[in-house]
Design goal:
Radius of gyration of chain A: 19 Å
Strand order of the largest sheet of chain B: 1-4
Helix content of chain A: over 70%
Strand order of the largest sheet of chain A: 1-2
Order of helices and strands of chain B: HHHHHEEEHHHHEHHHHH
Helix content of chain B: over 70%
Shape of chain A: globular
Number of helices of chain A: 11
Number of strands of chain A: 2
Strand content of chain B: under 5%
Number of domains of chain B: 1
Distance between the termini of chain B: 18 Å
Structural class of chain B: mainly alpha
Oligomer: heterodimer
CATH topology of chain B: ABC transporter involved in vitamin B12 uptake, BtuC
Structural class of chain A: mainly alpha
Strand content of chain A: under 5%
CATH architecture of chain B: Orthogonal Bundle
Radius of gyration of chain B: 20 Å
CATH class of chain B: Mainly Alpha
Distance between the termini of chain A: 42 Å
Chain lengths: ~290, ~325
Amino acid sequence: MDLAFILIQLLNGLQYGLLLFLVASGLTLVFGIMGIINLAHGSFYMVGAYLAWSLASLTGNLATAILLAIPLTVILGMGLERLLFRQLYTRDHLYQVLLTYGLILVFEELRSIIWGDDVHGVAVPALLSASIPLTENLSYPVYRLAISGVCLLLALALYLLIQKTRLGMMIRAGASNRDMVQSLGIDIKLIYTLVFALGVALAAFAGMINAPLSSVTPGMGSHVLIICFVVVVIGGIGSVKGAMAASLMIGLAETFGQVLVPEVAGMIVYVLMAIILVWRPEGLFGRK
Amino acid sequence: MNTGTLSRCLPWVVVGLFALFPMLESTFYTQLVTKVLIMAIFAMSLDLLVGYTGLVSFGHAAYFGLAGYALALMGPKYEAASLWWTLPGAIGLCVAFALVTGLLVLRTRGIYFIMVTLAFAQMLYFVFHDTKLGGGSDGIYIYAKPTMNLGETVLVNLEKLDQFYWLVLFFTAACYFLLRRILGSSFGRALMGIKVNEHRMRALGFPVFRYQLASFALAGGLGGLAGYLAAVQFGFVNPEILSWHQSGAVLMMVILGGMGTLHGAVIGAFAFVLLQEVLSNQAWFGIAAKHWQLAMGILIMLVALYLPQGLAGLLAKLQRKPPAEAEEGADV
């Protein structure tokens, strides 16, 4: 194993981790701020990928497809929050699990009715289809680097939004005391709707930009969902910082696991989770 | 007849009626009800955790699948294994797995507990899905059903549908009465106390963690019993039996029936499996039957929103309405 090979795996791991972060950050925000466990979060990732595929084949351009799809996912998120999730804030987690489990079935079947059960591929945009040669026979695709860059920018934007803006202040305040925020005259319901829609859009966006790299398949949502649960558990519920650390950890662990010990690669992340739970049951950055 | 005698006699009457069933009905329905009864064991085992101990596990399929794989892997490949040691072996394995994972997952609460139980079940899923151990994603066939012989005589022939049905009915009834007994004991009362207020129980000097672990292991063992029987019935195992869809389905049965009432879990198993059969019936729903999960999903959402106490809760409410003679929590 030479240096170029390790470099490629390292970049792949980081790129995968950053993509996981986009999905997991929405999940952890919805957990942390609204106290909702959302099993259907993986479905948003799937919806994003299918939207990107179908709109890209309509318009012939992935970038246009993404620009068209993002508003749709925001609307989807706001609608779901208003119609369904709003009813569950005060209910036991059990019912949230049940409702969102039902929602997965609905999404899966609607996907099957609208888009069918076939596996699809999306072409890498021409502008980013080049590869950077590393050695004689190893090279690295520009598109992967571009994804990593976009994910990093979004992560930075998310950090700034939550830590530095007035809206972020309200979000953080809403997470610690909903009633107090409301009695201070802030429309907490609107904030919840926005946070939920943001989470949906982030997950769907991750599905869109990842569509050219991994094919668009029916089961893609559930795999990502479970991995993101592990990310949230390791990082600590509600911690965006924790989600970032855990995503990168899992991304690297899984990528290198698949190269070095392919037989047990699927288990590595769960073993990692078990170890961290023994050490810190509330996650790396979780509050006790 | 007062309510006490009724609640004592009714289960026996129901078991008796069920015992007659294979004599009256076709093999299709006997097989269907066998499946329902197996799911009832599975649902009751989860109800012990969710409804009585207050631990919402979303990874209960792990035990169901583990026991199935245990049967498939423990026996010789083409000959029948003996039930006398494969069943205790499978259940023992599940209890052991529950004890080990329980030590970890019981350190967490709430949302964490849900996710961590799910993650451990997924871990098992990937063990069987990715490695050659259990035939990968295709699974393995169980060519011969286990034998139940006493010396030379065949005690129960599991190849015969009606005999297998009665065996499953026996286990379902045994599971019901065992859990009823346990929940009526001081141990069961303590579990319910932990569900309501863990801190108070700890302050009263109860070893909360050990009680929860015992409940977790018992639920795992009974879940394993259901998984073992299911593997015998279907004759094959594949990773899907321990997927999270399975965990979600059994959770749905518990809540649909009404959690915290053992008979509710049985009712829920019936309602769920029959609903599945009806919705996917092509003769009735034609093209829509192909997408039966859509209707199922909507139904699950409606239950979560509007029927939090499940069917058992609905029954109790209907019963209670006219004379307003409320008997709170006395149905255990």
